[in-house]
Design a protein that fits this description.
two-stranded antiparallel ribbon, 88 residues, 20% strand, 23% helix, alpha+beta
Length: 88
């Protein structure tokens, strides 16, 4: 649990290095790295990654059944996920 949380902080704070018991947690590409880690070899096309001053977004589709959303606001995971891209 602590290890997963440290990875999330590293993904959400690109370039930040965190160390726990000698293990380093660092991400150079932020959300792109987070999404790549989650979908690994199941993605159907390259990750779409958009970043501006106040907003960062990454998405892709996979060959998995169902949907998964990973939503973060101000560095914290939001349990309800993303609703903006859902259709009724």
């Amino acid at each position: 649990m602590i290890r997963k949380r440290l990875w999330n902080y590293a993904y959400l704070n690109r370039g930040l290095t965190l160390v726990l018991n000698g293990e380093k947690f660092k991400s150079e590409r932020g959300l792109h790295d987070l999404l790549h880690e989650e979908v690994q070899d199941t993605q159907l096309y390259d990750i779409i990654h958009v970043q501006s001053t106040h907003f960062e977004f990454a998405m892709t589709h996979t060959d998995r059944y169902g949907e998964e959303n990973f939503s973060y606001v101000n560095g914290h995971y939001t349990e309800d996920g993303v609703r903006i891209f859902r259709f009724p």
